[in-house]
Amino acid sequence: MDKIRVIIVDDEEEFVQALVERVQLRGMAVEGFTSGTAAMKEMEQKDFDVAVLDVRMPGLGGLDIVADIKRRWPERQVILLTGHGSAEDAEKGMRLGACHYLMKPIHIEQLVEILQQVAGPGQKEQGDE
Amino acid sequence: METVKLPRSTEKTDGFTSLPPLHRRRYRHLMWQAGLSISLTAILPLLIMTWINYSQFEETFHQELVRPVFRFTANAKRSLEFFLQERISALSLAFREKPVQVLRDEKALARMLNNLKDTFGGFVDLGLIGPDGVQVSYAGPYQLAGKDYSGQQWFHAVHMRNIYISDVFMGYRHFPHFVIAVREDNHQGGHVLRATIDSEIVNKLILGLEPAASSDVFLINRQGLLQTPSRLHGRVLEKCSLGVPPYSAKPEVYETMDGDGKPLIVGYAYVNDSPFIVMEVDQSATHQAGWLTLRRNLFLFLLGSVLVVLAVVIGGTRLMVNRIREVDLRRAAVFHKMEYTNKLAAIGRLGAGVAHEINNPLAIIGEKAGLMKDLLLLSDNPPDRQKLLELVESVLRSVDRCSTITHRLLGFAKHMDVQKDQINLEVLLKEVLGFLEKEASYRNIEIVFDVPGDIPNIESDRGQLQQVFLNIVNNAFAAMENGGRLEIALEKMDGDQVAVNITDSGSGIAPEHLPHIFEPFFTTKKGGGTGLGLSITYGIVEKLGGDIKVASQVGRGTRFTVILPIRRKDE
Q1: Do residues B176 and B197 make contact, with C-beta atoms less than 8 angstroms apart?
Q2: Is ipTM strictly over 0.90?
Q3: Do B379 and A25 touch (CB under 8 A)?
Q4: How many CB pairs under 8 A join A and B?
Q5: Which of B268, B287, B306 marks a domain boundary?
Q6: Domain identity same for B278 and B426
Q7: pTM for the whole thing?
Q8: What domains can you pick out in chain A, each with its CATH number?
Q9: Residue B31: which H helix or E strand, with range?
Q10: Beta-carbon separation of B374 and A22 below 8 A
């Protein structure tokens, strides 16, 4: 069984570092980025299953990227992270094609569960069909 | 850029944005000002009316005093002139009718004297004097036949004018009398008929004209000697204390003072063809009782009216000023509440940003702690000591970040009583912008500070200034697209003031909206703002003794200039 390939983008470097490591410990292939631009470059070159994006970032924010990803790679899934109390941005992201959103601080089990749900073996097979 | 400076007098009528300082002194000043102007308006016409009345009454009373004296003096003059003329005519007639030869007979002269006495009265004796001045015949109570008058002044006078009336004198007769002499040049060969008249008859004549009981009536001659007795101004032939009044063909009245300083009204008239001046002297004080009563009543009325006006004005003004004060206090309370609400709203607007700011370090803490747990539970190898230390350090750094944010928020939310505080504007502005740092970074908004070295600390109220700048900066952020620029420039101005220029590169304010932006409830925000932010900002700046100006150009941006005094003036 292939590992689920995840890309995590957040402007908080320490957050990204820890989250990447934790998700890796749960058996997924994860890469972290602290800017939307760097992440987009990587995505163009490498295949991945799910992108976890922070909504608000200097430069390219999560909302800017989500539409781009869904347009270019409709099969790739996007999960949004938001530090806001308001869910407005997240809902906007869902309309643009994100499949889930999570409020910071996040629970790792919840994230992993969602990751497996959207990109786990069943989902992948469905996608392959 | 189009600049609008709101004129202070017309800019606000609603009262929300400009509240007067509620100090006692101000209301006392207002009370004095209103009281004085109303009192003056009410009392001045009263004073003028009283003065006009007083003058008119005084003039009328004066006329009342003067007129009878004038009338009496004129009457006395006419009567005396008639009296003297009558006797001159009688003498002339009698003299013309009888030849000198007849009159040389003393019996005939005595008959003539008796006729004159019976018909006219006052004649004492009668003498015929020859052209040489020697008395030819004499009829009367004295032995004066043969007396030589040729050396006497009156004899020369009668030769020149044919008629002569003497002053009153005592002469040989030892009672006051005067002489009327007539000369018939052609007819009687230069003889003179000389009659002596008892001056008492003249006295009786003028007293018979019924002068006022309070007045003194007498005659003087042109040397000022009394010709008839005076009650108050001397005896016959004494010098009259009033002196000789200036000559006038008509009767005259003048006012003077007697030796005791009492006011006198003096009427006089020169009696034609005689040495006499008739005088009536009245003590005007005796007639003034009526005037004094009226005058007293007039002043009492004035005093009473003024007191009533003052009482009403003081009462009314106090009531009015108290009402104004109550309204001011109520307005101040409403304003204070609105200010507070506005501050809470401003903080609420910041809430989202603050939550995000706190959530980020919290997320880091969560992840770092979670990773430590993961390392302990999930990793096959025991966690590396250095790795754990780094994770803990990261957690502690994030906790510091959180506490910085919470402290800033706490400091900002402090209640805002007007206080004097030394404030470094640069620090204060950076504190305010600290809340918007994250938003600025997400939205790529560049914040530029320009603080020259000569900006002094200012004395003002910290909380209120925070609110002012937060309102302006919030508006600026709302007006700007992502990638905008906010410039904050401090500037030391003349007259101990500091200007804070806050310039954004936002959408700008339409010229037709510019004059209204400080009005309460005026808003152009699409979501519908309260329209109170800038009006409250204006009110606070004014309360702090400063001023606020705005310049804007649609599509290019807006600049707010807040001018603040370096030293806070006591209200």
Answers
A1: no
A2: no
A3: yes
A4: 72
A5: B287
A6: no
A7: 0.50
A8: 5-123 (3.40.50.2300)
A9: helix B24-97
A10: yes
